[in-house]
Design brief:
This protein is mostly beta strands. The protein has one domain: Maltoporin, Chain A, CATH 2.40.170. 9% of the residues lie in helices and 57% in strands. It contains 5 helices and 22 strands. The protein has helices at residues 4-13, 16-22, 322-326, 334-341, 349-363, and strands at residues 35-47, 61-75, 79-92, 103-116, 120-132, 150-166, 170-183, 191-202, 209-222, 228-240, 245-256, 267-280, 283-292, 295-305, 309-321, 380-393, 397-410, 432-447, 450-463, 470-485, 488-501, 513-525. The chain has a 22-stranded antiparallel barrel. Helix 4 packs across helix 5 (349-363).
Length: 526
């Protein structure tokens, strides 16, 4: 069980997390009926390549792991809170290992508090996770003990906002957001930002057409890169031709002040036009085409739900940063897929969330599906990302399939990343990259206490520089989950991962490697 001293120590280390939680004291029912569930896992893993080294240097190892943690949940009229924490403590059969961790942390906390009636609210998020530094180094979410190409990232977001109705004519919202992203990687640096967002939208008086005005300003303070400001203004309008089909129009202006090469724009006018089609609550399609200062811009969001399937398709391009992506939830979230599927069967959101969480645990499903790697960078980047996913459920089986393709192009000065990758990797390796991948999971319930799952994934990362460096990853996993008691479960897992890279083994890379592993674990909730 995690002690109160341990929790206090972690909170102090995370600095901003304390500030986020302090805001909860303003919510009248913040401490009522809080569900706090301690838990502990123990795991034994044998691997034939503990460091994910190139095949010639592979070394087998027995890894023992103890994982104390807790889940916290609260859902009432004043507070919605969901979070989990785990501490991973590792012990190795060999005492002379370098390049592995002894302890690391995982934290995911999300919440929303109603502070004053229907007017003042607070959104908050905090996280601690282990993230890959480069898209071209060893990457294995199953081998959390590997320290190569991995650093801890800590983040929090604190966002109070005020909602004001102007009769039936309009609704206004004023939001302030403070966030922080930090890491123990000196080349990535710590950063914080302050943003002010003002939105004004039409009220219920207007039915066939509507409008939205958005003004946004953000100041980003970075310990590595220069302080930068972002300003954006947008006017959006929509007109309903029918009950199910609407036209969409947007005009705006973006302005960034990041450092870049001569003659390269950092802001300009924007526009887009498109439509939204929603023939039923189960089917929706929204698409726009336009132009921003960096060139053509497109946006697509489509969803189709049936009783046993959920289909999602999306495309989006935008100027962003690695730190901004660390602040966002997973783009391919297993819980969201299953939540959409159960929407008509379990209308109550609290009951539905509990059912989804229980289903994921019972079937050994991952919390998120494989996605592109948000590698470390201090630069502004143009990101173009396409995602597709489908979830299918039967009487005793569940299938999840996802595909992604992400193109990243660095926009700001390369000097900001000069200390990030080290001397063993070219500084332009991450300038322009393509990442693509596919993953599939099939889970089957064998009996009321036992389930089995098989997953496979393939990913390819390309550096679009003169070197044309490429890395390909394959992963295969077979897992059996058994519920011994209501609060005690066990997992047996076999896995194989393969990495094929054109990069030579060096700082942050392992060249070509293969790993086979078997793991057994017990999980207890109190």
């Amino acid at each position: 069980m995690v002690s109160s001293r341990m929790i206090i120590t972690i909170t102090k280390r995370r600095g901003g997390l304390a500030a986020v939680l302090a805001g909860l004291a303003l919510a009248p029912a913040a401490r009522a009926d809080l569900q706090f569930t301690p838990k502990v896992d123990v795991r034994e893993t044998w691997t034939d390549n503990v460091l994910l080294s190139n095949d010639a240097q592979a070394r087998s190892q027995l890894v023992s792991e103890v994982i104390p943690g807790f889940d916290v949940n609260e859902h009432n009229s004043h507070l919605q809170l969901q979070g989990s924490y785990q501490l991973h403590a590792y012990h190795y059969a060999s005492a002379d290992l370098n390049g592995v961790d002894s302890v690391n942390h995982e934290l995911a906390l999300n919440g929303k508090a109603r502070l004053i009636g229907e007017e003042l609210f607070l959104d908050f998020r905090a996280g601690v996770s282990q993230q890959p530094v480069s898209a071209f180094g060893p990457v294995s979410p199953d081998a959390g003990y590997v320290a190569t190409n991995r650093n801890e990232v800590r983040s929090y977001t604190f966002s109070p906002y005020l909602v004001q109705k102007l009769g039936s004519l309009a609704v206004g919202q004023l939001r302030y957001t403070h966030d922080l992203v930090s890491s123990d990687n000196a080349g990535f640096g710590n950063s914080n930002s302050d943003a002010l967002l003002l939105t004004l939208s039409n009220g219920p008086m207007l039915r066939a057409w509507g409008w939205d005005v958005t003004l946004n300003h953000q100041t980003l303070n970075d310990h590595v890169a220069p302080t930068s400001n972002t300003d954006a203004a947008n006017l959006a309008a929509h007109y309903a031709l029918t009950n199910t089909f609407s036209l969409l129009e947007n005009v705006g202006y973006d302005k960034f002040d990041y450092e870049t090469g001569p003659g390269q724009p950092t802001g300009g006018k924007s526009w887009s036009t498109g439509f939204k089609w929603q023939p039923s609550a189960r089917t929706s399609l929204e698409a726009t085409v336009g132009r921003r200062y960096y060139g053509p811009s497109y946006d697509l969001v489509a969803q189709q739900r049936t009783r046993h399937t959920v289909w999602n398709l999306s495309y989006h391009d935008d100027v962003t940063t690695s730190r901004a992506q660390f602040l966002l939830p997973s783009a391919l979230d297993t819980a969201n897929l299953l939540d959409s599927m159960l929407l008509s069967q379990i209308p109550d959101p609290v009951q539905r969330a509990a059912a989804v969480a229980a289903y994921i645990r019972a079937n050994g499903l991952p919390s998120s599906l494989p996605d592109s790697i948000n590698y470390f960078s201090n630069r502004y980047i143009l990101q173009k990302q396409a995602l597709a996913s489908v979830a299918l459920t039967g009487a005793r089986t569940t299938g999840l399939l996802s595909l992604y393709r992400t193109r990243r192009q660095a926009l700001s000065s390369v000097q900001e990343d000069s200390q990030l990758l080290g001397s063993g990797i070219s500084t332009d390796l991450n300038d322009n990259t393509n990442q693509s991948g596919v993953s599939a999971i099939l889970s089957a319930t064998l009996n009321p206490r036992t389930s089995m799952s098989l997953s496979a994934s393939y990913s390819k990362t390309e550096s679009l520089t003169l070197t044309k460096d490429t890395q390909i990853n394959h992963a295969l996993r077979w897992m059996v989950t058994h519920q011994f008691l209501s609060r005690l479960s066990g997992v047996l897992e076999l896995r194989q991962s393969r990495n094929r890279s054109t990069l030579a083994s060096g700082a942050g890379t392992s060249g070509t490697y293969t790993e086979h592993a078997v793991a057994a674990s017990l999980s207890m909730k109190f």
